[in-house]
Automatic annotation (TrEMBL):
Keyword Oxidoreductase: yes
Keyword Oxidoreductase belongs to the record: yes
UniProt GO BP: 2-oxoglutarate metabolic process
EC number, UniProt record: 1.8.1.4
NCBIfam families tied to this protein: lipoamide_DH
Pfam family, one: Pyr_redox_2
Encoding gene per record: lpdA
Cofactor: FAD
Primary location group: cytoplasm
Catalytic activity, reaction form: N(6)-[(R)-dihydrolipoyl]-L-lysyl-[protein] + NAD(+) = N(6)-[(R)-lipoyl]-L-lysyl-[protein] + NADH + H(+)
Annotated protein name in UniProt: Dihydrolipoyl dehydrogenase
Family: Belongs to the class-I pyridine nucleotide-disulfide oxidoreductase family.
Source taxonomy: Bacteria, Bacillati, Actinomycetota, Acidimicrobiia, Acidimicrobiales
Key words, A-Z: Cytoplasm, Disulfide bond, FAD, Flavoprotein, NAD, Nucleotide-binding, Oxidoreductase, Redox-active center
Amino acid sequence: MVPTAENPAPASTDTHFDVVVIGGGPGGYASALYGASAGLNVAMIERQRIGGTCLHVGCIPAKELLETAAVHRTVSHAKEFGVLADAPGLDFGVTQDRKQGVIDQLVDGLKGLLKGRKVTVLDGTGRLDADHRTVHVSGGESGDVSITGDAVILAAGSAVRTIPGFDVDGTLVVTSDELLSLRELPERAVVIGGGAIGCEFASMMSDLGTEVTILEALPKILPGVDKDAAQIVERSFKKRGITVETGVQVTGHTPGERGTTVHVDGGEDIETDMVVVSVGRRPFTDLLGLDQTGVSVDDRGFIEVDENCRTSVDGVWAVGDIVPTAQLAHIGFAEGMVAIRDILGEDPQPVDYARLPWCIYCHPEVAFAGYSEEAAKEAGYDVVVSKHRYIGNGRAKIIGDTDGLVKVIAEKGPDGEAGRILGVHMVGPWVTEQLGQAYMAVNWEATVAEAAAFIQPHPTLSENLGETLMALTGRSLH
């Protein structure tokens, strides 16, 4: 095998391993690192760059550009703090260079971890053989080789979804893959899809000067988010000049001399310079050779697994975006660890998909764990709810960011009092960094009284969660 700058040299010349992992994204590299730390001899195969979607065209670059938007927004309001700064300009090329620098540093760190734990990294496309133990590697710097494993973990990741009538050309029509590498932002953009990714892109571009329209087919943006939180985001967007249209269908677009015209079914055409298709991602199982293996795939293309990430074939596991669970990097991490522990015979605790931590990095940010109010009622719970807005929070006033709230959904006990915490939904300043204690409370099945007893430091944004919990006990301060 020929080592490259992108891939560390293999730790050995073995052709048989305890575990073979196909895919070097979050699910794959987490499986490899966790397995190696447990003493397993692991090989990992990656056809592109180590780090996968998250590191190269997902979480990391998107949040880096959103941070640029936050800096721009802060400087724009500097005079409110007595800081006499000129109106900020934007060199988006510098932003992209900084983004790439962050990615490169993280890739180098990941390669160092893999090398330090003696994971054999193969550069190429991995295809599972019909015997379920052999993986053929081809098309990369490692050459055409075949390796075997006592266990195989499939972690091939995902690819962007597209929609009819919007062929991606990288100029007029882009997906997240292309948008995250633009050297200049358009003057006008239509974002098709008002989910987490679409809202993050819309927020970022708007803050940096683009005139943005969001088109969402469902009745509200941010499906799955509690309605109170979603409404605050939508109001904030509209206040900042972002046009939000929900319950609409697009039929295609017609390029013109300048930009293109998006056609809305039953609505008015929209002229724009760029269309950003943000309608989710599909499982990328195309190159795994599953047709000959007996591995079960559902009608949407996802590999079917049980609670321990086992596929329908003995000795083969699947994790990350190729299984029908939340397509989040941290869920790929968790699933990779479950798979390794299952391979080790440790009877792992399955991932609780009903109480995951979710973070959306638009402005204002959104973070939640557990049931929304609507979902809790649909599940048959009798609930009590408390909400506290950041407008009354001292730290929020200090930083000049008071838009948002904390909402706690709790199970109503036989005495009518608030009992177990079923969900916490937050929208506002830095709520993605505040979610930790709420996530733990939901997953440890804490009661309102138990969680409310903990002291929140003052002045902090997290006091808002404490106040919301105390209110549910029937006694509160502010």
